[in-house]
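Input structure tokens:
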């Protein structure tokens, strides 16, 4: 059974920090890239950050300098999203994504709420 288990979401005040974690399991194919996406109420899901062995780390413009995507060196497939200087507009459900050659896999999402 394929799972992408996310954790680390919660409620934080503006200017605060959170770290999201994503642990994939049961994926039979090599993972080419992993990333974080988010979906705010009434909006479409958007990419936040991606990490691949070929292209490295990439960020959407609104989070550059504040968010960092990284991989656990010991557990090669565990991916983190360190979020600093959070803003109310970062409020959304954050989803972990794993890309393989054949298809993409998604986590169930974790809520991040930033109060002003």
């Amino acid at each position: 059974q394929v799972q992408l288990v996310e954790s680390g979401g919660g409620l934080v005040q503006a200017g605060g920090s959170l770290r999201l974690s994503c642990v994939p399991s049961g994926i039979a194919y090599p993972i080419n890239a992993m990333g974080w996406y988010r979906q705010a109420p009434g909006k479409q899901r958007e990419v936040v950050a991606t990490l691949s062995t070929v292209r490295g780390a990439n960020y959407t413009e609104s989070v550059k300098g504040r968010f960092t995507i990284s991989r656990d060196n010991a557990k090669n497939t565990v991916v983190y999203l360190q979020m600093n200087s959070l803003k109310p507009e970062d409020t959304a459900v954050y989803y972990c994504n794993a890309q393989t050659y054949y298809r993409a896999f998604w986590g169930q999402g974790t809520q991040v709420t930033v109060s002003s």
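The radius of gyration is 14 Å. The chain has a mean pLDDT of 94.
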